[in-house]
Amino acid sequence: MKNQKFNIVNAQSNIDWVGKKVTGAHNGTIAIKEGELILNDGQLSGGKFIIDTTSIRILDVTDPATNAQFAGHLASDDFFSIETYPEAMLEITAVSGNHVEGALTIKGITHPVGFDTAIRVNEDLLTATGQLIIDRTKYGIRFRSGNFFKDLGDTLIYNDFELNISITAKAA
Fold this sequence. Notes:
By secondary structure, this protein is mainly beta. It has one domain: Lipid/polyisoprenoid-binding, YceI-like (Lipocalin). Helices cover about 5% and strands about 60% of the residues. Strands 1, 2, 3, 4, 5, 6, 7, 8 and 9 form a nine-stranded antiparallel beta sheet that branches. The longest helix has 12 residues, at about 65-75. It is globular and about 50 Å long. The relative contact order is 0.22.
């Protein structure tokens, strides 16, 4: 059995996020700070990566003042509390075929997650993609959630948000 470690190239890796609300959606990016993936006989077997929550960007709001206000709100305690929690983490705990089980930590709160991934290895370069659907309320992010607040009408924000992960990693 051959174990191989791949270090994530953060400049070539990112996460695209989508948050939805009654009246539409917002999207943006968030950076992967560092991490590694472990392959055993060419198959993913483990790994973890650190997400830089201070890097969250909003792409669909083009007015600079509105974008800055929105980014400040995402950074606040209503959402990601980035001053207290500048990092989030995903650790892979089990892999079966192309299905990954892991532990996602946001705001110091950890919950299990499961998602499918596509991995390609070309000599010393690995690329991986996957999509996670996360219930934000499990991580203490309750702002305008219908589970916790009544009569929100068209200001309701859906609990689930989407993370589309794209990773490039080089053999260590």
